[in-house]
From TrEMBL:
Pfam family, one: Sprouty
Residue segments, region Disordered: 1-41
Annotated organism of origin: Pectinophora gossypiella (Cotton pink bollworm)
InterPro entries, A to Z: Sprouty
Record protein name field: Uncharacterized protein
Lineage: Eukaryota, Metazoa, Ecdysozoa, Arthropoda, Hexapoda
Residues in the signal sequence: none
Gene Ontology terms describing biological process: regulation of signal transduction
Record's GO cellular component terms: membrane
Feature: compositional bias, Polar residues: 1-12
Length: 109
């Protein structure tokens, strides 16, 4: 079948070699192509967004929520509403403004 030697094996002789067996101790086997070098992770493309309040360009990943100073502050608006700051500002505008129409924007300041 796959035997090179036609002699019968005896107790003092080595077993017969097969065609694919070279008889050497070191075996060379094909293990496939060598591994490819590790690639550095490429930065994914990030689109720049435009702020709807100040119209400046920014990256979403590099910007935290509420970073725009011109954006409305929902907590401040809620506090102003609950504490009637808007009513006090209205009184200041109509009663305490000077000839040029200027007054303190925040009545508690």
């Amino acid at each position: 079948a796959g035997v090179v030697s036609s002699e019968k094996s005896s107790p003092n002789t080595k077993p017969p070699l097969l065609k694919r067996d070279s008889g050497s101790i070191k075996k060379f086997g094909y293990s496939g192509p060598p591994p490819l070098p590790d690639k550095k992770p490429t930065d994914t493309f990030q689109a720049r967004l435009k702020c709807r309040h100040c119209h400046e360009w920014y990256l979403e990943s590099a910007n935290r929520a509420g970073a725009c100073e011109f954006a409305p502050d929902c907590f401040k608006s809620c506090i102003d509403c609950v504490t009637c700051i808007k009513c006090a500002q209205c009184m200041l505008y109509h009663c305490m403004s000077d000839a040029e129409g200027e007054f303190a924007m925040h009545p508690c300041a």
